[in-house]
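Deliverable D2.4 — example input (C-alpha cells):
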C-alpha cells in the first residue's frame, strides 16, 4: 500500500523497527488531514506483523479494517471524546488485561491534544513502566498541548503534508476526476484529508458553503445575509475556519482583479466581489477578516465579532 507523502516517515519507522529500535511509545504529530490515523495503523502493523508489514496477513488485515481485537482505538472506545471515567475504563484499567492471542496489545490514543493534563498524568506511569506486552501509539496536532513529562517518554515523529502532485494523484486513484483533484490539492496545499472532506460533503463542505454565502452577500453588499451566514456558526473553531475560507475567497477576488483565476471552491463568489469593488477595498476587507480571525482564536464574543465584521466590511464604504 502506498502512503502518500508519508514515505519518508514510513522509511524511518521501518528502519527503527527492522533494527529493533522502535520505541514502545511513539507519538505521530502533524496537521489535521495529514494522515495521522493512516500512519498510526501503519505503526501498529509494524509492531504486530514486522518490518515492513506484509499487508496481507491476518494481523495486517484486521488492523486495516480497525477490527483487530488487540489494537484498541481509545478515543473511539471512549465514545469519541476523552472523559475521565471512560478513559480509565477503556485504557488505564483495560491495559492489565492480557492480549487475546498472547502477543502484543497496542493502544492507539488519537488527538492527544484533547487530553486534559489530569488524564495525561494518569497515563504517565503506564507509559513509563508498561507490562512487556503493551505498545502505545499517540497522535496529536500540536505537541505544545502535551505535558513535557509525556513527551520525554515517547519517540516523536513528525508527519508532513504530501506534495500537491502526490495529493492530486491520491485523489485520482480514489475516483476523483483529474481536474477536480488538481484544483482541490492546490486549494488545500496537498492536505489529502481536507480534500476528501470536501469531496465527501461533510462538515468541511458546510463551512465552505457558509463562507461562500458570506462572500456572495459581500458581492451584493447585503449586510443582513452576510451577518446571517456568519451567525450560523456557533462554535469558535467552525467560526474561525469559516473566516479562513472567506479570507481565501477575498484573496481570490484580488487575484481575479489582477487578471488571474480563482481557486476551485468559490469561483463565482470571488468573481462577484472582484466585479463589485475596487482593489483597495478588497484588500482592506481581506485585512479586516484576517486580523479579526487571528483574534477570534482568543476569546471574542462571536455575536459581537459578526457585528463588527459586518460594520467594517460593508457600512464603512457606503455613501
Ligand atoms: Zn502482515
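Example output (designed residues):
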Amino acid at each position: 500500500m502506498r502512503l502518500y507523502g508519508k514515505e519518508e516517515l514510513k522509511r524511518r519507522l521501518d528502519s527503527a523497527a527492522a533494527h529493533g529500535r522502535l520505541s514502545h511509545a511513539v507519538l505521530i504529530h502533524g496537521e489535521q488531514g495529514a494522515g495521522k490515523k493512516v500512519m498510526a495503523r501503519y505503526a501498529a502493523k509494524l509492531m504486530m506483523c514486522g518490518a515492513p508489514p506484509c499487508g496481507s496477513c491476518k494481523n495486517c488485515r484486521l488492523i486495516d479494517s480497525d477490527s483487530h481485537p488487540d489494537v484498541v482505538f481509545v478515543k473511539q472506545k471512549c465514545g469519541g471524546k476523552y472523559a475521565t471515567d471512560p478513559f480509565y475504563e477503556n485504557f488505564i484499567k483495560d491495559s492489565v488485561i492480557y492480549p487475546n492471542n498472547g502477543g502484543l496489545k497496542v493502544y492507539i490514543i488519537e488527538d492527544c491534544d484533547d487530553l486534559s493534563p489530569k488524564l495525561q498524568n494518569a497515563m504517565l506511569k503506564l507509559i513509563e513502566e508498561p507490562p512487556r506486552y503493551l505498545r502505545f501509539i499517540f497522535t496529536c496536532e500540536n505537541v505544545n498541548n502535551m505535558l513535557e513529562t509525556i513527551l520525554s517518554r515517547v519517540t516523536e515523529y513528525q508527519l508532513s503534508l504530501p506534495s500537491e502532485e502526490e495529493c492530486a494523484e491520491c485523489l485520482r486513484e480514489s475516483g476523483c476526476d483529474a481536474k477536480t483533484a488538481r484544483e482541490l490539492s492546490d486549494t488545500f496545499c496537498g492536505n489529502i484529508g481536507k480534500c476528501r472532506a470536501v469531496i465527501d460533503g461533510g462538515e468541511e463542505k458546510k463551512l465552505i458553503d457558509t463562507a461562500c454565502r458570506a462572500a456572495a452577500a459581500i458581492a451584493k453588499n447585503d449586510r443582513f445575509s452576510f451577518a446571517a451566514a456568519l451567525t450560523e456558526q456557533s462554535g469558535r473553531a467552525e467560526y474561525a475556519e469559516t473566516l479562513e475560507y472567506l479570507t481565501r475567497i477575498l484573496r481570490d477576488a484580488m487575484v481575479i482583479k489582477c487578471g488571474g483565476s480563482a481557486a476551485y471552491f468559490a469561483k463565482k463568489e470571488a468573481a462577484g466581489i472582484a466585479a463589485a469593488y475596487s482593489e483597495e477595498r478588497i484588500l482592506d476587507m481581506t485585512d479586516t477578516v484576517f486580523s479579526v480571525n487571528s483574534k477570534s482564536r482568543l476569546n471574542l464574543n462571536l455575536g459581537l465579532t459578526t457585528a463588527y465584521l459586518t460594520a467594517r466590511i460593508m457600512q464603512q464604504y457606503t455613501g
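The longest helix spans residues 236-257.
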